[in-house]
């Protein structure tokens, strides 16, 4: 088995074409938010690409919660932004959430077509690695970690997270691509000081400037949750 790494959302179709099991990662903050919402009892998350689609779906389903961001901020008329800390149990339990974000929901929707799409972040790195390995072995396919990046560009925190997942997948039988090896090496040097390393990244700096340092700190917590979301038939639910 091979572990591949695609560095931005626009590269997701390559992983789909290979027939790989895909793990989509957007540490800041989309996949961290999805994992937190589901861990706090949300029924399901529906990722959508555009604000227009999000508003339309919300009009058709008035009970759904409309959430997401543009430029890091909550768009007009949305109930929640994209801060995982907003998705508390008392707000989301039993609710379906429509989520649109700048890059994370793009990586997810671009991965559609893969047979299995899991949702990973530092918050569930170990559980994600375990599930991805188990499911890929069973299906006889390779694994691709697809990083959301930022507006089509590479991002540090997603690369470190790929390393955190890759490091756990890296058993004797798994061959790592050079990019996956580089990510595990980066994770090795960053672990134990994840917040200090990740805060140096462009996106973390942007969020900290918006007053969202607590979000960055939360998203840097490793293995807080054992839950692994799966995206199928347009909806994300716990596996
Ligand atoms: C995204 O999907 O681009 C991110 O989640 C942006 C953010 O930090 O809100």
Brief rundown of the structure:
The chain has 239 residues and is of the alpha/beta class. It is 42% helix and 18% strand.
Please give a structural write-up:
This protein is α/β, with parallel strands linked by helices and 239 residues long. It has helices at 12-18, 30-39, 51-60, 89-92, 104-110, 125-139, 156-169, 178-190, 194-198, 202-209, 213-219; strands at 2-6, 21-25, 44-47, 65-68, 96-100, 117-120, 143-147, 175-176, 229-232, 235-238. The chain has a single domain (2-238), classed as ComB-like (putative 2-phosphosulfolactate phosphatase). Helices cover 42% and strands 18% of the residues. A 5-stranded parallel beta sheet has the order 6-2-7-1-8, sandwiched between helices. The protein has a 3-stranded parallel beta sheet with strand order 3-5-4, with helices on both faces. A two-stranded antiparallel ribbon has the order 9-10. Helix 6 (125-139) packs across helix 7, helix 7 packs across helix 8 and helix 10 crosses helix 11 (213-219). The protein is globular. The mean pLDDT is 97. The structure holds D-malate. D-malate binds next to loops. D-malate is lined by residues 26, 28-30, 69, 72, 82, 101-104, 148, 207.
